[in-house]
Amino acid sequence: MNTETGRHPGLNLGSGHADAHGEAEALVFGFWVFMMSDLVTFGLLLATYVTMLDNLAGGPGPKDLFELKPVFIETLVLLTSSLTYGMAVLSLKHGPGHRVGPVLAWLGLTLMLGLAFVAMEAKDLHAILGKGGAPQRSGFLSAYWALVPLHALHVTAAAIWLMAIAAQIWRFGLDTSVKTALLRLGVLWHFLDVVWIAIVSVVFLGGLA
Amino acid sequence: MTAPVETEDETGTPDGTPQQELRSYLWGYGLSLLLTLPVFGAVAWEWLSQTALWWAIGAAALGQIAVQFRFFLHIRLKGQAKEDLQLILFTALILGMMGGGTIWILHNLDSRMGGP
């Protein structure tokens, strides 16, 4: 075991990237505080959802609306995208001589998985609308539409951010601001995994059990 | 590229050699799958009673969240420069009070009002 100090959440770039590693501590910590406030938002929307579970107003409930198989595939896609994002940051950290190829390749794969997740999620929401599950139908559905699409919106925003960073890598190479941006996006990307686990467990698995 | 010598350095990395780092990510991925697949299976094929399922889902979710924080967000129990872990615990406390309180109070109100 080593007893080194981790300067910030997520992979630390270390002394091989002295400038970025020095700047990252304050930047990633600030972003981490922001993520924790986001966690409160999601947590309270989840609590609201739980209080609304019985308020169906004669409309469709969880067992009428949700399907396990697409949720299962979405979960696998999101978990895998977390691994590929980790690979992108690892190849940034250890890639010889600032080669952008491997970093961009892993980021591209992560983007594909993220966009696939959003597309499947959109398809699910459309299917729910088709089953009479519009947000205004009942308190339960209002709470559902406040919670689950908000997470998909976060993933969409993260994917757009990823494209912006990839464009910067393409244009400017792996400079210090690109490196610290990648560390912050990594925190967001892995954080969205944690939120999705909570949503899957309470909304989908809990609702279908 | 020389061999990594950063482990003793004050500005170094806490994550060990590149091989250890890679292995740590793969472990995280493997554990997260291990905590996902059986739970989906149990729900899909109803391996347990409903109450047991809910307990299993809750336990797997907590384990999964711990795995995500440990292996992907690199939160450790000690050796952080900033109060990253304390922030998580404080946020969990706030959520426990506000989220748990919301569910408790509204459920209580519901039963007093003769709800379903």
TrEMBL record, chain A:
Q: Which UniProt keywords apply?
A: Cell membrane, Membrane, Transmembrane, Transmembrane helix
Gene Ontology MF terms: cytochrome-c oxidase activity
Pfam families according to UniProt? COX3
Is the keyword Disulfide bond assigned to this protein? Answer: no
The residue ranges of the Heme-copper oxidase subunit III family profile domain are: 1-208
User: Does this entry carry the keyword Cell membrane?
Assistant: yes
Q: Which PROSITE patterns match?
A: COX3 (PS50253)
Please report the record's description of how this protein sits within the membrane. Answer: Multi-pass membrane protein
Report what the protein is called: Cytochrome bo(3) ubiquinol oxidase subunit 3
Which lineage is the organism of this entry classified under, starting from the top rank?
Bacteria, Pseudomonadati, Pseudomonadota, Alphaproteobacteria, Rhodobacterales
**GO annotations under biological process?**
aerobic electron transport chain
* Family under the similarity heading: Belongs to the cytochrome c oxidase subunit 3 family.
Annotated compartments: Cell membrane
InterPro entries in UniProt: Cyt_c/ubiquinol_Oxase_su3, Cyt_c_oxidase-like_su3, Cyt_c_oxidase_su3-like_sf, Cyt_c_oxidase_su3_a-hlx
Q: Which residues cross the membrane?
A: 29-50, 71-91, 103-122, 143-167, 187-208
Its job? Cytochrome bo(3) ubiquinol terminal oxidase is the component of the aerobic respiratory chain of E.coli that predominates when cells are grown at high aeration. Has proton pump activity across the membrane in addition to electron transfer, pumping 2 protons/electron.
| Gene Ontology terms: cellular component | plasma membrane
Assembly, per entry: Heterooctamer of two A chains, two B chains, two C chains and two D chains.
TrEMBL record, chain B:
Give any single GO term for biological process: aerobic electron transport chain
What protein name applies here? Cytochrome O ubiquinol oxidase subunit IV
Entry keyword annotation includes Nucleus: no
Query: Where are its TM segments located?
Result: 26-47, 53-73, 85-106
Transmembrane found in the keyword field:
yes
Question: Which GO molecular function annotation, any one, does this entry have?
Answer: proton transmembrane transporter activity
Keywords annotated in UniProt:
Membrane, Transmembrane, Transmembrane helix
Q: Which InterPro entries match?
A: Cytochrome_c_oxidase_bac_sub4
GO CC: one term? cytochrome o ubiquinol oxidase complex
